[in-house]
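Minimal example, chain plus pyridoxal-5'-phosphate.
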Amino acid sequence: MSDNFSDDLIISTKNQHAGRIITQLSELLAILALDAKSLGVDVAPDFALKVPYAFVQKMQKGDKNDPLLRQVLPIIDEKNCVQGYELDPLQEKKFNTIKGLLHKYPSRVLITLTGACMVHCRYCFRQHFDYGANLPDDDTKAQIIDYINKNQQINEIILSGGDPLSLSNRRLFLWLDAFCQTHVATIRLHTRVPIVNPCRIDDELLDKLAQLTLQKNIIMVVHTNHANEIDEFTKNILLNIKKTGVTLLNQTVLLKGVNDNVNTLVNLSHRLFESGVLPYYLHILDKVQGSAHFDVPVQKAIELYWAMLGKLSGYLVPKLVQELPNCLYKTPIDIYKQM
Ligand SMILES: *Cc1c(COP(=O)(O)O)cnc(C)c1O
C-alpha cells in the first residue's frame, strides 16, 4: 500500500497519543511489554507494520495471543508460500476499467479513493495491490463521474481504498460532493477508521455526514473482528455517527486465533448492536498470499454459523459469505453442506 497521503492524516491534539500511528515494531512491543523472540515476528515484512496507538491501547498487555495484536503483528508465517494463496485472489484487475474504479457488481461501483490505510491488517486482500498505478487524479475524477452518469443501472457508489477516511476532510468532501451530484440513491463508505482510530471522526465530518443524509442514503460499513475493538470511546463515536442519520453496518473476517469461536462471535454481535451497528457480513478469508495461517476451514465456519443461529436474534446474525473471483455477488456459504 502506498503512504502518499499520510501527510494528509488528521492528527488530533486532544492528547499526546491521539491519532498517532505506530510503525515501529520496537515501540509496539514496548507498549505491550512483549519480547520479540517468543512471537515469531518478522522484522522486515513486505507489508509494513502499521497500527494506530488507539487500537494498541485496546490490546491486553503481556498477551502475545491477543486477538487484536494478531491482526496487525507481522509474523514469519506470512512468508510461507501455500498453494492456492495468490497475489490478487479476487482477480479484480479485469473489472478495473478506469483508474480507481471497480465495476464488478452491476448495480454498484467501488471507488478506491486512496491506497493509504491507517491500519495494515495482515490478511488484507489488497496488500499486494498496485495502488500507485491506480489512484484517481483530477482527470480520472471527471471520467469516473462521467462513467457513473452514463450507467443508470448503478444505484450505489462505494468509497473504499485503502481507507477513504484516511483522506483529509477537505479531499474527502470534494469527492462526496461530486458523487452527490449524480443520480445514485446511496453512497456507502467502507472504513475501519472508526474502530482503529476513532478520534479521526471529528465534528466537521459528523456535520458533513448529517448534511449528506438529507440528499442521499448514507451507509457506513465498518470492519470489526472482535468485541475488544469497541471500547467505550469507540462505542460513543459509533453512536455519534448513527445520530447523523447514517446506517451503520459491520463486516467481519473469520480468522483463526482471532474470532473462530462461537462465544467470541456472539459477543461481537451484541457489542456492535450496543454501539448502533448491525452485523452485515461474516467473510471467509480471501486467499491472499501470506494469510494462510489465518484460514478457518469452511466446514468449521459452517459449524460456527449454526451455533450462532442457536444463540443470537436473527438480526444479529451476519450473512456468511465468500468472494469468488468470477461471481458477481458475495456468495452465500451453503450451510447444509455435508450435514
Ligand atoms: C463487496 C463488493 C461490493 C459491495 O457488495 P455488497 O454485497 O453490496 O456489500 C461492490 N463491489 C465490489 C467489487 C465488491 O468487492
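The longest helix spans residues 298-311. Residues 124 and 168 are 23 Å apart (CA to CA).
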